[in-house]
Amino acid sequence: MSDSGERIGKRKFEFRWNANLNVLVIWLVFIAIITIAQVVSLLPGQYPTMVSPANLSNIFAQVSATGIMAMGMAMVMIAGGIDLSVGMLTSFVVLYAAKSHVDFGLSLPMALITAVLFAVAMSAGMGFIISRLQVEPFIITLGGMICFRGIALLVVRSQEVSMKGAMDPLKNSVMAEVRDPAGLIVNVPPYIFIFLAITVIVWIVMRFTKYGRRIYAVGANRHAAYLAGIDVKNIIFSTYIINGFLVSIAALILLARVNTAIITVGQNREIDVIAAAVVGGVAMSGGKGTIWGVFIGALLMGTIENGMNMLRINAEWQFVVKGLIVIGAVSTAAIVAQIQAKRQLRVKQDAALAKSAIDKVIAEEKAAE
Amino acid sequence: MSEARELLRLISISKTFPGVQALKGVDFDLRPGEIHCVCGENGAGKSTLIKIVSGAYQPDEGGEIWFEGEKVTLSPLGAMDLGIQCIYQEHTIFRPLSVTENIFVGMEITKKGFMQKQEMRKRTKEVLDYLSSDIDPDELVGNLSAGEQKIVEFAKALVFDRKVIILDEPTASFSVTEIENLLDIVHKIKDRGIGVIYISHHLDEVERIADRITILRDGNLINTCASSEITQNELIRQMVGRDASLFYNREHFTPGEVILEADGLTGNGVADCSFNVRRGEVLGFAGMVGSGRSELMTLLFGGVEKISGSVKLFGEEVDLQNPRVSIRNKMCYITEDRQHSGLFLIHTIARNTIIANLLISSGSFYMPKKEEDVGEEFIKKLGTRAKNAGVLAGNLSGGNQQKVVLAKWFNTEGEIFIFDEPTRGIDVGAKQEIYRLMTDLLRDGKAVIMVSSDMPEVISMSDRIMVMKSGRIVGELDGNDVTEENVLELSIGGRKI
Hints:
The complex is a heterodimer.
Chain A: H1 2-10, H2 17-42, H3 53-78, H4 86-102, H5 108-133, H6 137-156, E1 161-162, H7 168-171, H8 191-208, H9 210-220, H10 222-227, H11 232-258, E2 260-261, H12 269-279, H13 291-310, H14 315-368
Antiparallel strand pairs in A: 1-2
Chain B: E1 8-17, E2 20-30, E3 35-39, H1 46-53, E4 64-67, E5 70-72, H2 76-82, E6 84-87, H3 99-104, E7 110-111, E8 114-115, H4 117-130, H5 146-159, E9 164-168, H6 176-191, E10 195-199, H7 203-209, E11 212-217, E12 220-226, H8 232-239, E13 258-267, E14 270-278, E15 282-287, H9 293-301, E16 308-313, E17 316-318, H10 323-328, E18 331-334, H11 338-342, H12 349-354, H13 357-360, H14 368-382, H15 398-410, E19 416-420, H16 428-443, E20 447-451, H17 455-461, E21 464-469, E22 472-478, H18 484-492
């Protein structure tokens, strides 16, 4: 096709209200928050600087685990599912890995590998039930969440386990000697790079592979996907397996960070993860959302928390603000969708009116003949 | 009881939808204690008529509705208050509730805010006794058979002393004894002085119970007469004869070799269906709504598991156990419900266009740029009216949505195309374009199987027609036998009850 080359050459970025607006809103909120925090920090007072190498690396370090989990959650949700068990699965991995290394005498690599395998198996079990029996993922993973909590507590007999610094290499900064202009240590732990690498890989999978498109298709219209030759059951199954794997990686990062394995490590973490995905534009109904949106969503939630800490807003208010941001993000998306639907309807109505007017004229002409 | 007083009279009722006039100045009346049957092909305007009577639609200006001598405007609730009840094809029941609870739901008898269960149960029992039914008023409706559920709906109408009952295809999917039972009950309802509007595709039923018959065609009133004055053949003759402008004149080709042979397909509510399709021809499937045509297509494509039967493709037997196998074997399935099973409404045209191609193209990657190019290519090829391939499928009109579905399948290496109601809900211009695209397929030596409830469409597009009824193929029409009369006779006549 001779003209297609020409057309490709001319193709420009075109703003799509339906696809780009959500991302734009998230970006604007993101920038607004950083700006506010930065302005406040420049005012005379005791506030630390928001935009500084030390603080930015802190934010990344803080959101890495949640961000990795949000990637897995995004895949599950885009395929039309949800996973409430990720928090307690995190606790299980953390407790099991620590206990098996410290008390059961497994070598560190063995402890970590078996922890990952267990997590994948547990998540796959739920995925298998959800995909084969077509039951509500909300309920199955709720059951999984309760169950994993019990298993985790059984492993450690409800006690906490200290890792005694066995996983510090994952935590220690790769740039230990670097300080920013203000003299603060810039902390760049290696797991930040794991977070970035996973983001890029998931992005490539979701955007450039057939598998990614199948995930979107299954979430958008399961029945149509099946009739278009997609192995719906196994696609859904696979998203839970991948999610289990990513959760276990995130859990090990958390273990390295906190050094002490305790059940509260994963508690309520599913809330933050789902919030990051939803703020990033992933729809609960499936089929929608981009990986960079989720990346920004995770960063946004982390930045808000960080910013509020800097402004010394107390924890109670932080919950209120985070909750409002989730509500705001989803409502904005809904408002945009409604405005669009109204505009579409008007176009269709105009077309129908025009058509009936034309038909009338034609009928009158015929009658005149 | 048999005073000639009128219950309901419609005068010069028209109803226009965008692009189609469903009713054109129809008169209709109903007397107490009579069964008035409404007959016509699919799309003749029967459903629109009963929706106007039940208040779901408002007639166009100029039409009048009189109820018991008074001019009225009907709304769904208003019609209910006047005593008009419609019993639809799909059951409107609450399966986890008992028979009594179903009858009184929303209209419970209460005393000081407490439900009078005994009173409600007693009234239910009385009515069920009158209908000679042994259904237990405390039984959960979910445990009843389809026929018994229908009886519960009749009982509801009697409990509340309805004056007009509308029955829309009440015997669809019923067994012979259930039909027998139901017709008895309709007679009992009539004996109470209730006016019954009865819609059925089964002319034997109509002949047996009708007092009067009204025939509609293309939204026009053709005839209203006493059922004793008309024979079944005459009835069919009046139902056919659609406007010639509705027919499409397509190029015909000499059929090539047989590429699909189905033998004794059974499952999904259809039984023992055998047929074959040749290159360059359209095999039409005609029959009334609910005759099992779409079910047969889903079964053929592997959308549901089959019980027995076999399929030969290109001379070799293939087990089409799921859509993946079918697509790899060059089959395409354009379903009847675009929005539910054909399109990804929240995705772009481009994404919709490539989704079935994922299975047959090689490699694991599919670049977004290629996706967009393919989307644009098919927009051009099929003449889809959209700004670009990035428009969401959900934002297109019906005809353009159908073109996106076609693009999805044209973008596979398909040779056998199953079209289920290819032009439903599509305006006339887009219809012609779809027909042209189908003809192009035939010219390329591909085979088309088409299910259609639109009589002019199935007559003018098909080379051969298989007629289905009650889940079975009841006849094959070929060449000069492809006429409206023959199709109708096979699909609605001759049922033994």
